[in-house]
Amino acid sequence: VIPDGMRDVLPVEAAELRAIEATLAGRFRAYGYDEVRTPALECAETLEAAGDPARAAGYRLYDDHGRALMLRTEMTAPVARLAASRLRDHRLPLRLSYVAESFRPVASQGGQTGEFVQAGAELLGLPGPEADAECLVVLCDALAAVGLPDARVATGTLAFHRELVAALGLSDEDAADLYEALADRDYPLVEAIAGGAGVSDEGRRSLERALELTGGADALDEARRLASSDGMEAAVDHLVRVHELVDDAGYSDRLSFDFGLLPALDYYTGIVFEAYAPGGGLPLATGGRYDDLVGRFDWPLPAVGLAIDVDRVHQALEDGPGVARPAPVLSFAGGLEDTERAAELRRAGVAVAAYAATARDLPAPSLRLDEGDYVLETPAKTVTRGSWRDVLKALGAR
Amino acid sequence: VNLRIALPAGDGFEPALSLLRRVRPDWTRASEGGEGAVVAIDERDVGAFVAAGALALGVAPKDRLAESRPRVAELLDLRLLPRRLVLAAPLAVAKPGGPAAAGGPAARRRLRVATSHPRLAGEYFTVAGERAELVTLAGPLAPALDAGLADAVVGIVPGDDVPDGCKVEALLLESSLRLIVARGARVHASGEVAALLSDLRTALEDA
């Protein structure tokens, strides 16, 4: 018996997941992101600093002194905590990455398991569109590297909406309700709140048009037409610059814009994005700028980051282009006794599972000694019979 | 991009299909195991199908969306199938102040409530500060009152109807059919989704 929402992962899937994680970690490394690890258990206040009630409702326990602990519900707040407490004397910007499990209580139809692995990258200490663009490029590159070049990254900005909502002249309470409805993407409720709060027809039309504004670079032109303040103009200029930089890096065809995109996390401050596979409903990756979060750990520092959900990437590969299978393991009957030959194969780059010489019906590919000859059988039942040299040649050993 | 849409099987299906046909006359209903853009799905499950991206679009009652909270984008109130989620108790025991007030069922240690919407019902009683024992039922709620399984029900009534022999104690939610879209489809099929949304808005305004 295992707890609700948890699951075991069996060998084939585990190998596939490990390969995805290794590819993602490798791409982060290619951009200079250093891997960090943080404890699975954090003090509850660290995770509560992220300010999302849904995530604050994680698995809790108490230490000997009655201090509230939590299994981490995400990695951005722990990495911000780590940077603020351990890396203050390092040169900025900091480029940090991780591949780690997080834990959340499961909700029915939530589409998420209680334990999930995220591969993420955080760029701390760098403001501006250049940092935002780097983050998007890393994301597009990483998704292409794992085999999802058709994934699209929907990009929006909170800076635009803050100005738009401020211009509506709502009370603090109505504005809070409106942001909650926006995060839930309940647009009829957004319209109802605006209507109930006496927002002008023009204000409601602007809001409606902004929320429905999706598409490629043309959406930025439309957003510029909607911009009614310097702040909104600046938000559009920012996205235009991000688009140019991502375009120069060769990834602008992966980017789309969505002005209805507002995540629930209250630590986001600027650009926000979510990546989707074709035909997928839930995001493969999420991210954005969170200039206020590191400051909650007493080190005010602009930051932007991304987190890729490894299980969703795996699912998208299974649903779409297929999962790359790791090289099969050779079953070597006699390998337990003939450790010299088994070691030679492994040194030559062949993965070998050793069995007793008497073992029969081993999983293919398999190797056994029969009347002085080696017999190599592939999964397709092709049989090679011959000397040790023939075996090495047939296996394509290095 | 070929978009497919889940419509709620049951009372909501025909009105939703009729509206959809006005803007997308070529969208045909999927035969069993066959091709077609329109798929009939239990109204409780439309959100799950769309959240996973199995179907890009869906139409579902607001009360079902509020109950299951699928991670979709809710685009438009279609103003079809108006109905209410209410707390109702038999007239014989209904009192001013609700079923938990003094006398009648309030003499019990806890109120037993049969419901089709346990999450919304639970949240209602938590906010109201009342203690209620919820019994979740898949079928009609009236037999729960008749058989003494529950003292009150939290369930759906069409329009302004009141359940037979009952008094409505509280209105939890006003519901109607909503157009929802998979969050991924909003990215990969943004043009098609925007065009459908615009056409449906126009059709609703014309009506």
Spell out the key features of this protein.
heterodimer; A: 398 residues; alpha+beta; 9-stranded mixed beta sheet; 17 strands; 40% helix; elongated; B: 207 residues; alpha/beta; 5-stranded mixed beta sheet; 10 strands; 29% helix; 29% strand
SSE order and pairing:
The complex is a heterodimer of chains A (398) and B (207).
Chain A: H1 11-30, E1 34-35, E2 41-43, H2 44-48, H3 53-56, E3 60-62, E4 68-71, H4 76-86, E5 94-103, E6 115-124, H5 128-145, E7 152-157, H6 158-167, H7 172-184, H8 187-196, H9 201-211, E8 214-215, H10 217-226, H11 230-248, E9 255-258, E10 271-276, E11 285-289, E12 303-309, H12 310-319, E13 330-333, H13 339-347, E14 352-355, E15 366-370, E16 373-377, E17 383-386, H14 388-395
Parallel strand pairs in A: 1-5, 7-9, 13-14, 13-15
Antiparallel strand pairs in A: 2-4, 3-4, 5-6, 6-12, 7-10, 8-9, 10-11, 11-12, 15-16, 16-17
Helix pairs in contact in A: 1-5, 1-12, 5-11, 6-11, 7-8, 8-9, 10-11
Chain B: E1 5-8, H1 13-23, E2 38-41, H2 46-51, E3 57-61, H3 62-68, E4 72-77, E5 83-90, E6 111-115, H4 118-128, E7 132-136, H5 142-146, E8 152-158, E9 166-175, E10 177-182, H6 185-188, H7 190-206
Parallel strand pairs in B: 1-2, 1-3, 6-7, 6-8
Antiparallel strand pairs in B: 3-10, 4-10, 5-8, 5-9
Helix pairs in contact in B: 1-7
